[in-house]
Design brief:
heterodimer; A: 312 residues; mainly alpha; B: 331 residues; alpha/beta
């Protein structure tokens, strides 16, 4: 017993170990700080927008007044530091705004898919029988539909003003569409892990002690698969960002707010005319974020893998 | 209460079959007869040793008794209550008094919980005392099993196998149960640690007036700890008597073979070692007649068709055996 152990009371030693090991991976930590930077930017945009809700809109209108004209990148002013698009809108501001759109949508979609996938997977795995059959049937059906069509169908339906008085159109429509269609992966994963663990001796021991089913699921089984949820979250986050880009590229996102997908969609037709900066800004922003998230997610998985835990 | 007031636990004709399912429609094509009609009783404060080779259904007997595994048929009486007919709430009440110690101390402790919360869990589940009182109870039981109260804050992976088994024992005993099923509690441990744990279990039995069902495959351990011993073969009990009598004069040919295989500290020159041929038959397709007949050195024609049920040989100490030859030889 050393000082360290006593201090770690109530704190799961797995996390303690994992973060210690993670800190030793320099490259992963760089990626972590890049991702953290993106999040800070998103929060900054969110705060700036809540102080002045017309921030993005002002730029649109203001620039519109100046005529529909490109401005090449130059260091002369903030508006033209990355150039502008054909409406004279600043690429820099659009790109920054895109960070917020992408992260907000990906985060909300992840939370929704975990909130649906984890309880369903846990119930299916633990109770088995009819419950299992129903859950498996639902997700098999859902995963048989090509996801892009499913997401588009959801996005179109949710964007309809007749549903919930149009409250779900725009951003909520996008993350609901992604979240409601992509819980299958995590559900399958959790179901498998619960099936694997429900016959283990510590679960039998909990049963022998007299624990209820919900106590066994929430106190014994889920804490033991929590690292899997975290790893899945970090790796799925990237694909959710991509989905947001694709949806807004297809014009199903929020029409009034800048997003990377819309930038790429607009820039793709201009590329042949030598207007390269808008495409570059959006794709570089996506590329750096995806790469950093993937590398960090992989490192996190290595550090949280229980089989590698004993090695110090 | 069952017929005999002294008996804390009584098992009657317990059968646990696992269905074998095959094909698309998961039709049941057969059963693995893990436990096939086991009956015994345990007096209050005594230890019954349940011995047999791996796969003979020892663990299934223990788990079925606590309803951790669903039994196919049979009855289990505990303190006069019929365990299999209890409601959910009644079962929870009963489980307060009957606890289970698992074989593998590496698997039976939740790796994400501190030792303190593992041991306090039974108290919390049964709403015993206030949080402070529970904390005291945990510290007390930790000392009782030979650990210190500082250990409550550590995680299971910080402990050795022996210490972990002490933690598992503490969890089983913190509710002060009457009856504990010990499912091979020492077979996963080093030989040097085994005796410590056995002695701990014996001390606790004396101090807390516990009744044990002690499941093991190690005959030396069983001899040391048990008052009575039941020998199992292929889901059935083939011999039952006091520990002393079993080791002095085993009657069933299977028991004889087992006992002849115990290594001795002072080998006698002309000790006869009975070597059994073949494998244990599959419990999904047990042989007709006496399940032991294909390997039995003294089997005769009728053993292939008829089964001798467990019968008293009529000695002073109760001695039951399921073998025609043994019963004839004795009478």
């Amino acid at each position: 017993m050393n000082e360290d152990n006593i201090n770690s009371f109530q704190r799961s030693s797995l996390w303690h170990d994992a973060f210690r090991r993670l800190r030793r991976r320099k490259f992963a930590m760089v990626c972590f700080w890049i991702v953290a930077g993106y999040f800070a930017l998103a929060v900054f945009v969110y705060i700036a927008e809540s102080i002045d809700p017309t921030m993005s809109a002002i730029n649109w209108k203001e620039q519109l007044g100046q005529g529909m004209e490109y401005q090449r990148p130059s260091l002369c002013s903030v508006k033209t530091i990355f150039g502008t698009n054909f409406l004279g809108q600043s690429t820099l501001i659009s790109t920054l705004y895109g960070v917020k759109t992408a992260l907000a949508v990906a985060f909300a979609a992840s939370v929704i898919s975990i909130m649906i996938g984890v309880p369903l997977g846990a119930a299916a795995g633990y109770f088995g029988g009819v419950v299992d059959d129903i859950v498996v049937w639902i997700y098999s059906t859902l995963s048989n539909i090509p996801w892009i069509i499913l997401v588009m169908a959801f996005a179109v339906v949710l964007n309809d003003d007749k549903i919930m008085g149009g409250k779900l159109s725009g951003e909520p429509g996008v993350y609901l569409a992604i979240g409601l269609t992509s819980w299958v992966g995590i559900c399958r994963l959790i179901r498998g892990e619960i099936i694997k663990r429900k016959e283990s001796e510590y679960v039998l021991a909990a049963k022998a002690v007299g624990c209820s089913n919900s106590r066994i699921i929430f106190r014994h089984l889920l804490p033991n698969v929590f690292h899997i949820i975290i790893i899945n979250f970090s790796l799925r986050f990237v694909s959710f960002i991509h989905m947001e880009v694709i949806i807004s590229f297809l014009g199903l996102g929020d029409a009034n707010k800048p997003s990377w997908g819309k930038m790429i969609s607009a820039a793709s037709s201009e590329l042949t005319r030598g207007i390269w900066w808008e495409m570059t800004a959006a794709t570089m922003a996506i590329f750096v974020l995806s790469l950093a998230l993937n590398i960090f997610g992989d490192a996190l998985r290595d550090c949280l893998d229980p089989k590698l835990r004993m090695e110090r | 209460m069952s017929q005999n007031g002294k008996n804390l636990v009584e098992v009657k004709d317990l059968k646990t079959y696992f269905p074998v399912r095959k094909g698309m429609l998961k039709r049941t094509v057969g059963h693995v007869k893990a436990v096939d009609g086991v009956s015994f009783k345990i007096e209050s404060g005594k230890t019954l040793g349940l011995v047999g080779e791996s796969g003979c259904g020892k663990t299934t007997v223990g788990r079925s008794m606590l309803r951790l595994t669903k039994a196919t048929s049979g009855e289990v009486f505990f303190q006069g209550h019929e365990v299999f007919k209890e409601s959910r709430a009644g079962l929870k009440r009963l489980r307060r008094n009957m606890q289970y110690i698992f074989q593998d101390p590496y698997g039976s402790l939740n790796p994400r919980m501190t030792v303190g919360s593992i041991i306090a869990e039974p108290l919390r589940v049964h709403s015993v005392g206030s949080p402070e009182q529970r904390c005291e109870n945990v510290n007390e039981i930790l000392k009782r099993v030979g650990l210190s109260s500082d250990h409550a804050r550590s995680y299971p992976h910080e402990f050795s196998g022996g210490q972990r088994q002490r933690i598992a024992i503490a969890r089983a005993l913190v509710l002060e149960p009457d009856f504990v099923i010990c499912d091979e509690p020492v077979s996963a441990l080093d030989v040097s640690i085994q005796s410590q744990i056995i002695n701990l279990l014996q001390d606790l039995q004396r101090d807390m007036r516990l009744t044990y069902l002690f499941i093991a495959h190690d005959l030396a351990v069983i001899e040391h700890i048990s008052d009575y011993v039941a020998v199992m073969y292929l889901g059935r009990i083939v011999e039952y008597t006091s520990a002393k009598r079993l080791y002095e004069s085993p009657l069933h040919p299977y028991t004889k073979a087992l006992i002849s295989a115990i290594p001795e500290s002072k080998p006698i020159k002309d000790k006869q070692r009975i070597v059994l041929d073949g494998e244990v038959p599959s419990p999904s397709n047990p042989p007709l007649g006496c399940p032991f007949h294909p390997r039995c050195p003294v089997a005769e024609a009728r053993c292939r068709h008829e089964v001798q049920s467990l019968a008293d040989v009529g000695t002073e100490t109760e001695h039951l055996v399921a073998c025609f030859r043994a019963l004839e030889g004795e009478k």
